[in-house]
Amino acid sequence: ETLDKGLEKSKSSFFSKMSKAVAGKSRVDDEVLDDLEDVLVSSDVGVATTIKIINRIEDRVARDKYMGTDELNKILREEIAGLLSETNSGEAAEIQIPNTATPHVIMVVGVNGVGKTTTIGKLAHQFKNSGKNVILGAADTFRAAAIDQLQIWAERTDVPIVKQSMGSDPASVAFDTVQSAVKQKADVVLIDTAGRLHNKINLMKELTKVKRVMQKVIPDAPHEVLLVLDGSTGQNAFEQAKQFTAATEVTSLAVTKLDGTAKGGVVIGISDQFQIPVKYIGVGEGVEDLQVFNKYEFVDSFFK
Ligand code: GDP
């Protein structure tokens, strides 16, 4: 219900465009497929994934000889759910915190402004509500505002935070955080990192160093690298995914701001192109506005 509300913009726009594409048509022909292609591309599904979807539908049209436009919704839905299933197996995708003595370390990456800090705050809230001890590490030391923002979220969610002054070494903050997590027997560690993309080599070096230093305390850390992308930025989100996956191994995605965009298709395209599961979607600014990604609900919210 909240998902539907959060995704209203994506849904209504995709749907109205779809209806226009099939208006006055009784069967799926080349023109309908061309229009559908436009709808998918303009919904930010991305060209490569759009072509994949169109090809699959063309195959089905060729096989079945005749396809009514009323069947198109159903088939499109199946194909999109099928694509998402390739990277998002299972019903719900949330990050699982194992019941071990070692804290589960989640390193959160993404460029400034995408909603990284907000997502960390929302995650801290969710993990805490499920009975986990959470600790935050303010390793984005390049902006004072980043440290302050994370501090605000720590207070709001009532979880401890490890920080140093602005300009200090991010790896040193990360080290302190995991060390203190082990000492406090924390279950989950959320490490914020700096999201400067202007220098790819530096980004890679920095993330590698943060990882290496954490591994001195917990050899298999980080257990999860969560890339946060702003779902309203379309092609920029694709570009960021490209750069971050080149800089470090990304294990999961959170796509934010899907409440404010008519372009939720980015979720489908990025998940398909990078073969990384989408685990969370952000649908607002509040602490509760982070949803565990459910591919069936997501697809349904487009086609209901
Ligand atoms: P960071 O620089 O990546 O850490 O970004 P912030 O977490 O500070 O978020 C930047 C802005 O986006 C803030 O105003 C947030 O309230 C807002 N924001 C974050 N996530 C969402 C979301 O899912 N929906 C909406 N509407 N706003 C969001």
Automatic annotation (TrEMBL):
Keyword GTP-binding: yes
Similarity field: Belongs to the GTP-binding SRP family. FtsY subfamily.
Pfam short name (any one): SRP54_N
InterPro entries for this protein: AAA+_ATPase, P-loop_NTPase, Signal_recog_particl_SRP54_hlx, SR_rcpt_FtsY, SRP/SRP_N, SRP54_GTPase_dom, SRP54_N_sf
Protein name stated in the entry: Signal recognition particle receptor FtsY
Catalysis: reaction(s): GTP + H2O = GDP + phosphate + H(+)
Domain spans labelled SRP54-type proteins GTP-binding: 277-290
Top-level taxon of origin: Bacteria
Function description: Involved in targeting and insertion of nascent membrane proteins into the cytoplasmic membrane. Acts as a receptor for the complex formed by the signal recognition particle (SRP) and the ribosome-nascent chain (RNC).
Keyword field: Cell membrane, Cytoplasm, GTP-binding, Hydrolase, Membrane, Nucleotide-binding, Receptor
Subunit structure: Part of the signal recognition particle protein translocation system, which is composed of SRP and FtsY.
EC number: 3.6.5.4
Organism: Autumnicola tepida
Compartmental location: Cell membrane; Cytoplasm
Keyword Kinase recorded: no
Amino acids binding GTP: 110-117, 192-196, 256-259
Membrane protein topology class: Peripheral membrane protein
NCBIfam families per the UniProt record, alphabetical: ftsY
